[in-house]
Predict the 3D structure of the following.
Amino acid sequence: MGKIVLQGVEKHFGDVKVISNVDLTVEDGAFVVFVGPSGCGKSTLLRLIAGLEDVTGGRILIDGVDVTDLPPMKRGLSMVFQSYALYPHMSVRGNIGFGLKMAGLPKDEIARKVEAAAATLNLTQYLDRKPRQLSGGQRQRVAIGRAIVREPKGFLFDEPLSNLDAALRVNMRIEIARLQKALATTAIYVTHDQVEAMTMADKIVVLNAGRVEQVGSPLELYDRPDNLFVAGFIGSPKMNLVGGRIAEGYGAATVGIRPEHLLVGREGDGWRGTISVAEHLGSDTFLYVDVKDVGLVTVRTQGEAGLRTGDSVVLRPDPARLHRFDRDGRAIRAA
Amino acid sequence: MAATVNTRRLARAMLTPAVVILFIWMIVPLVLTLWYSFQNYSLLNPANVGFAGWTNYQYFLTDPAFFQAFANTLILTLSVLAITVIGGILLGLLLDQFIYGQGIVRILVISPFFIMPTVAALVWKNMLMNPNYGIFAWIATSLGMQPVAWLETYPLFSIILIVAWQWLPFATLILLTALQSLDEEQKEAAGMDGAGFASLFVYITLPHLARAITVVILIETIFLLSVFAEILVTTGGGPGYATTNIAYLIYHLALLDYDVGGASAGGVVAVILANIVAIFLVRLVGKNLEA
Ligand SMILES: Nc1ncnc2c1ncn2[C@@H]1O[C@H](COP(=O)(O)OP(=O)(O)OP(=O)(O)O)[C@@H](O)[C@H]1O
Ligand SMILES: [Mg+2]
């Protein structure tokens, strides 16, 4: 229950092509995350799946049924909005139960389901409050309660945590992931937060300018990016991308090496440079090394390596972890 | 500390003239009205002057015209409120959908509000409702029906129509603005929750409009209790007392019957009644303004 398939989905706003030819399969029970830079069409794609926007072309199937022309309420999905979109004049109870009420369920059954959902989300003591009497995190939970109470075929989340502070975000992230696993309901989650994407997803869909750049598990995207865009987008701090003579030496137009895959030494062969900034974070140290012909290279080393600004160092990329890209930005894979 | 005290003192000093003038402006007519209301003061009988006790009030409150005027005032106010609020919501919903030529349509809708009551009433009386050459009569004749003498046959209804026409734009504008401030995502969320058009209106839109509706009702009531010009230029309060409201009755007493004392007593009664209605209304709908 809850397999979502997109076939050649397109969306134009007037002359602007916002989503072009997206093919995607979301397996039943999977947690799929859409990531991409701002304005790449993540929200639009989610709204197309929800039925809040009409597709310009292509088809959307849920459990094998073509829902392309069905209104949102007939698709059996529920959505958590970035602004929560709670109904301000209804109590928490009313908010969570609204969908059931619209579905015409008997009162006692609504009450029972609302209580159950509230218990799952630790909202029981707030059931009679209005949304404005709740904190941001509590509102967020009400929005999630509204989504789960209808037992939908799938959840759609549009950046649900972006209005919360950092600590609460981590908690809610874990809570949402736990809840989704417990309910075994398909979820599509939009975010531009790397950490959310990497930690929550079974599968990440990287979008860029309305196209799918790559689909894969978090580690697949990290270890084997298909192209320059994904290589640069996934991973924090960003992968170092080097062109020119050095790349030619590896038989590529561009080579990429992640900051954590560079070995730092004082002597020997490699890329020679000087440390222009050293950031000590305690567990890690980030070095920004000025390398001749290459520019600023980010390096991540463990612990306090005794390196400081102005030191001259040699960087050696781990050849097994080096990514090579051709002139079009496609990954070159050893045959 | 000293600075704020000084600023406050200075602010008070600067405010004083305005407050004093406003106070005099308000208190002098009120005190004069109160004073006259206890005096024998009829322009037709200049010899009979002096303290009258409660007789002016007695006459005013037992006058059958007073009851009719009171009822008319209530009917007029409530009918116009109902028409403008319901019509305003419908028009607001319509204009909220309307995309093409929205600016022009909005100006057209709001324009009746800028027409002076006297002019509006004259236009209605002569151009629309006149049984001989009015547009309504022309429509009726072209449909093969008997033209209706609106102001003679349905006088109070006609007045209600005219006043409602004047206040509809105000209600529409306030309610339209409120409609447009309804969060789009809330509507979408309700849509995903399975709310159709009717449920969306009842459970989301109407509660959102509650505050705006309250504002419309409170503001309109203040003006509707004292409708005057429309009555003066169309029916003159008649036929009989059919369209006389309290404001018009007071005018009638003072300037047609030349009974200044009686009119003053009526004025005081009107002020008291208006306050009762206001308190009642605020109790009834004012809780929407909290929140
Ligand atoms: N109703 C609309 N009319 C015209 N263009 C639109 C409309 N909605 C979105 N767009 C455009 O579509 C593109 C994608 O928008 P979308 O909201 O999907 O981005 P996003 O990936 O969610 O970005 P963000 O991370 O900032 O939320 C943007 O360039 C935006 O300007
Ligand atoms: Mg977005």
User: Anything to note?
Assistant: Chain B has a mean pLDDT of 83. Chain B touches chain A at residues 183, 185-186, 188-195, 199, 203-204, 207-208, 210 (CB under 8 Å).
